[in-house]
Every structure is written in C-alpha cells, then in structure tokens.
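Weekly sync, protein design subgroup
Attendees: M.S., D.O., the rotation student, P.L. (late)

Item 1: inverse folding check
M.S. brought a backbone from last month's batch and wanted to see whether the design step gives back something sensible before we order anything. D.O. pointed out we never logged the input encoding, so this time it goes straight into the notes. Structure tokens as presented (644 positions):
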C-alpha cells in the first residue's frame, strides 16, 4: 500500500461513516496570531469544537498539512517530522467513544491489515475528582475481543509518564495501560476552554529496548520500540474555574454535548501498514533519501540522522515556501522573523548536515533545490501548489544556500581562532560554551566541532555543550509557548472591530491599487491590525490617503455587517474574496458589508472570524505604516482611534 492509497482509504472509510470530507487548511493560519503554523487538524476547527455550527455538518474528516517547529531538534530518531500530514475525523456533539474506538480499530485492522497483536492502547488514569476512563477500557476490551484477543489492563503510571510504571511488563499479556499526565488533553487553562481524556494507539516496531532510556520499557518509552500512531481525544469537560493546568481536581464541569477529535500521523501509519520500523523507509521519503545518497556518495544506512534531517527539513521548507497564500510564487521566504525565520533555520540546518556527509555548496551549483524538486514531484497530485510554486522555492533555496555558505566559512575561521587560543593557554579542551557559540552563531553541529577538534589534537567538552544546548532549548520553549499554543485568537471587542476594519481595508486597497490585490495574511490584536497583501511596489502617500478615506467613508455610512451561508461556487459568483481558497468546504460563510437598501457590497469576504454588527462605532481608521513584507508583498499596520 502506498501513502497516497492509505490517505484515500482513510477518507473513503470515514465518508462511508457519514463524514463530510473537507480540504486541508493552509500551513499559515488565518487570523490567528497565537500560531505561526497550523500544527494539528484541530486548530483550524477550534470554533466548531467550541460550539459554532460547521457548514458541512457534525461529522468531518480530512488530511491536514501540519508543521511543528518544536520537533526540529527531535528529527533524526526515525520517527519525528517537522512537516507531516494529520489524518483526522471529528464529531461535534454527535458520536462518542464507542463509535470512535470501534471505527478506528476497524480501519487499522480490516482496512490497513495491521496485525492487532502489534497494537496497544493508553487511557486516562484519572485524578482526585475526575474518574479513571473505565468507559474506554471497557470498549477497548470488547474491540480486542472482536479480533480474537483477551486484552488485560497492565500496570498504571500515576507519576510522570515518561518513566512508566517502573517494572518489567509482559506485553503479550497486557494491551491497555493507564497514564495520568500523558492521557489528559486540554486546549488552554482559562474559563470556557475544553478538556478531557484521550486514548492513544501505539504500534510495536519490534525494536529492542535500550536501557539508556530506562531500566524497563513501556508504551511512552523514548527507546523507539513503541510509536504513537493515533490519538482519540474525548472532549468531555469545560473549564469553569482557572487554575494550574494539571490541577484537574478543580474547575471542570461535564459537557452536555461531547466532541471527538481524532488525529493520526500519515507518516507513522504508512510505516505500520508497510511493516517498517522507521518512517524514513516509507515511500514518503524514498525518493528524497535516494537523491541524498547520489549527492553525497554515502549510504543512508551509515548516516541515518543526517539523511533524515536533510530530507525532513527541506521537504518542510518547500511546503512552507510553496503554500498558496494568494498568487503563485509569493509564498513565505526565508527571513529573520516569524515563519520566515523557521524556514531559514530549516534550510541552514539541512545545509550543515549536508556538509557533514560531504555535500558541498558551490557557487552557481547549489544542491538544496534538487531535494525540493523531488518533494514537489512526489506531492504533485495531492498538493499541486508545490509544483505551481516550484520556481519560487528553487530561487529562494538558491539564495539562502549561497548566503549561508559564507556564514559557514566565517565559522571555520572562528574555530581556528578558538583552537589557537586554547593551545596557547596550554589547554586541550574546547569548552562547552565555545562549542555552543559555534553551533548557535555559525551553525556548527557538535559532530562537526568534534571532528575539527580531533584534527587539531583537541577534545570538546560535550557535556558542557549539552548543558548549554539544554538551557537554550528550555528558553526557546518558554519563549515560543505563546506562539505555538493552540486556540482561537483574542476575540475581544477591540480585536473584533479591527478584524472588521481589515475587511474594509482589503476592499479599499482593491479599489485604489487594482484587482491584483489579494490578502496574504494578517495578525490582529486588540491594539492594532497588521495586514499583508500582494502588490509589487511601495504605496504613494496619495494612495494611502485614498485608502484611509474610503475606509472611513464606509465606517461613517453605518453599514450593517451581515453573514450568509452558501455553496462555495455561489460565493465566488457573488464576488466574495477568499484568503486561502484550498481550505474551504462545499459550504462557506460570507460576510457582506453593504447598505441595508441594497446595491453593490463595499466588502464581501469568506470568513469565520468575529465581526461587529455595524460599522458604526468602529472609530477612525488610520494607517500607521506601509512597508515591504517579502517579494511582491506589502504590509500595512493600522489602528482605530475614537472618532472626535
């Protein structure tokens, strides 16, 4: 079975169970400043999990493009990706645990033909006031029985999940395991947020347990024997009182209408279906790995971590740069801010590992683009936007690779200076601080520093380096927690006003600059709006004044803001603008800003965010700044001030 066949089988299976199949949302979230990237199938659907009605109904399924920057340092262990596809199905107050668990195992065993003896399940252990998920345990025992197995519950893990129960486990006897911290899910920790137990499915790769990860193996062990391939989240509770996220003994109330949110990684599922124990040995990476072997003259089996980093990172960079944010060829470019910074980090890390296995960047002979071409070809049928934008991807990779080659040379000079200084002091060890400076400033992996040090008769304080790296990672995680947390953007009154003003701004820009103007993204807070749009040149002062005038005239007319639900094709015929067309289902919500007496709408946009009911009260619209965002993309920062 190929990955394309598996993806389609999943969608067909849940379509037959009454699910509407919706398209993947863009990797770049729309109107959600809390996220740099779409990092799960759930994040674009958060409003519907909170109670809003979805136009396609109460049962949905799709394959969602996802990216998780927090996994960058994990790539190279045979099972982690930064870019991945999440197969998902959802129930908004419809079916619940029994249907979900039965259908999921039916798909795994009857459709994918995965050996049920290699499947294990975890459940929520419970807390002082929220009961253990005995309901799921009972259902799972019935499911295993259906496939000829007596599934007993194994030892519990009430402490930190990564350590397991702390005893030898008979995996032939036990199939179900209860954890506390690993099997509780919640979206946030403010009043009104959802939470509940989840039940995760693990596949036994058959790998031998490594004791460096603990004396005894268990399902959440880091040794890599067991790999999570799916997670059924049962949104059973709503938070009624704020408190520490894991203090589950207080502040939760049972929901009347419960939701199901399932996600399963395509890369891991195809690994299991193809009988592999490594996601990089599947057809999703085969062509990429083969190309890296030809470029380096090395074998994957002898250099697995480096090959996996290169294949994962350059595929991910291609997807981020190649996503349709409007017109082809105007995606995210490498930069020092936001999404562009992550793209730059991915590319440079891939180049570092390429050098490690002998792939050199030469003037007018860059190599990273060759990997991107293969990714675009491999996904041509499923995600054709990569092929449409391949010229942009190639050009940006070429520029970034040439730029980083110069940085790498500077790093080599810095290493030489460090080595000379250490020898002059009569020492033989490069400190962890110096080694980490080479890593952070010049992109040197520790392996490269160790190799260079050995050539000069020096050693590297690797423990000191790891200490510095851990400090850096902890700081990075703390700093990025706000950026990568899930959930809706702020829906306060001021943010809602600015979101409505963004609709007026787009309409005014198209009137002043022309119909080529398309929204490329936005970031809206209670203080200001930031709006990116396609336009090849800097706006003149006169153009900015005309845009401000049109927006303020619309505000002064006290125009009503109305919403109509309609088929996507009808929305297009009626001139509705859309930001990421590929994310929409068959039925959409269109917000019109127009006179109650009829006539042509000032603004008509497909949107799902919060809006005011009338432009009256928005205040006075003022452009603070207009600047370049990236090639062919301009950015406006604007505010609403109280009318005088």
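Designed sequence read out in the meeting:
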């Amino acid at each position: 079975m190929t990955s394309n066949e598996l993806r389609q089988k999943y969608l067909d299976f849940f379509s037959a169970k009454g699910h509407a199949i919706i398209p993947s949302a863009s990797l770049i979230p729309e109107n959600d400043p809390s996220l740099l990237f779409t990092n799960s199938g759930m994040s674009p659907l958060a409003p519907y999990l909170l109670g809003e009605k979805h136009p396609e109904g109460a049962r949905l399924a799709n394959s969602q493009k996802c990216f998780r920057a927090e996994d960058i340092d994990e790539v190279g262990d045979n099972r982690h990706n930064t870019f991945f596809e999440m197969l998902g199905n959802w129930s908004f107050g419809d079916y619940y645990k029994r249907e979900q668990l039965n259908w999921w195992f039916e798909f795994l065993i009857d459709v994918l033909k995965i050996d049920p003896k290699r499947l294990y399940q975890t459940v929520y252990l419970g807390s002082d006031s929220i009961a253990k998920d005995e309901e799921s345990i009972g259902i799972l025992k019935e499911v295993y029985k259906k496939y000829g197995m007596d599934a007993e519950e194994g030892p519990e893990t009430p402490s930190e999940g990564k350590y397991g129960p702390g005893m030898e486990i008979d995996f032939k006897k036990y199939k179900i395991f209860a954890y506390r911290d690993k099997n509780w899910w919640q979206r946030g920790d403010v009043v009104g947020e959802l939470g509940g137990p989840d039940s995760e499915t693990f596949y036994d790769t058959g790998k031998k347990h490594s004791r460096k990860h603990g004396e005894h193996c268990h399902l959440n062990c880091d040794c890599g024997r067991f790999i999570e391939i799916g997670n059924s989240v049962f949104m059973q509770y709503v938070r009624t009182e704020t408190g520490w996220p894991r203090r589950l003994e207080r502040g939760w109330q049972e929901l009347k209408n419960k939701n199901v949110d399932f996600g399963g990684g395509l890369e891991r599922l195809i690994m299991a279906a193809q009988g592999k124990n490594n996601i990089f040995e599947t057809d999703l990476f085969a062509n990429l790995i083969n190309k890296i072997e030809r470029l380096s003259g090395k074998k994957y089996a002898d250099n697995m971590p480096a090959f996996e980093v290169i294949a994962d990172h350059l595929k991910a960079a291609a997807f981020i740069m190649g996503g349709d944010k409007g017109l082809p060829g105007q995606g995210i470019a490498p930069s020092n801010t936001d999404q562009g910074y992550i793209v730059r980090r991915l590319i440079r890390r891939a180049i570092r590992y390429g050098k490690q296995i002998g792939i050199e960047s030469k003037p007018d002979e860059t190599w990273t683009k060759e990997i991107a071409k293969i990714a675009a070809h491999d996904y041509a049928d499923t995600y054709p936007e990569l092929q449409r934008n391949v010229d942009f991807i190639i050009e940006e990779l070429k520029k970034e690779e040439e730029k980083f080659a110069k940085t790498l040379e500077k790093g080599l000079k810095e290493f030489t200076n460090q080595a000379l200084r250490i020898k002059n002091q009569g020492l033989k060890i490069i400190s962890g601080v110096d080694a980490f400076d080479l890593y952070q400033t010049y992109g040197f992996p520790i392996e490269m520093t160790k190799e260079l040090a050995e050539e000069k008769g020096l050693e590297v304080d690797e423990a000191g380096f790891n200490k510095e790296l851990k400090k850096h990672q902890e700081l990075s995680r703390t700093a990025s927690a706000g950026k990568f947390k899930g959930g809706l953007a702020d829906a306060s009154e001021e943010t809602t006003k600015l979101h409505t003003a963004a609709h007026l701004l787009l309409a005014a820009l198209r009137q002043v600059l022309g119909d080529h103007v398309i929204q490329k993204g936005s970031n809206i807070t209670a203080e200001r709006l930031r709006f990116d749009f396609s336009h090849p040149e800097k706006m003149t002062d006169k153009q900015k004044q005309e845009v401000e005038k049109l927006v303020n005239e619309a505000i002064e007319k006290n125009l009503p803001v109305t919403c109509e639900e309609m088929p996507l094709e009808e929305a297009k015929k009626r001139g509705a603008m859309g930001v990421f067309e590929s994310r929409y289902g068959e039925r959409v919500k269109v917000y019109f800003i127009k006179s109650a007496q009829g006539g042509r709408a000032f603004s008509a946009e497909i949107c799902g965010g919060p809006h005011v009911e009338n432009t009256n009260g928005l205040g006075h619209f003022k452009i603070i700044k207009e600047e370049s965002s990236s090639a062919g993309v301009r950015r406006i920062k604007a505010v609403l001030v109280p009318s005088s």
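Discussion: Confidence is low (pLDDT under 50) at residues 244-249, 479-489. DSSP finds 17 helices and 19 strands in the chain.
Action: P.L. to compare against the previous round before Friday.
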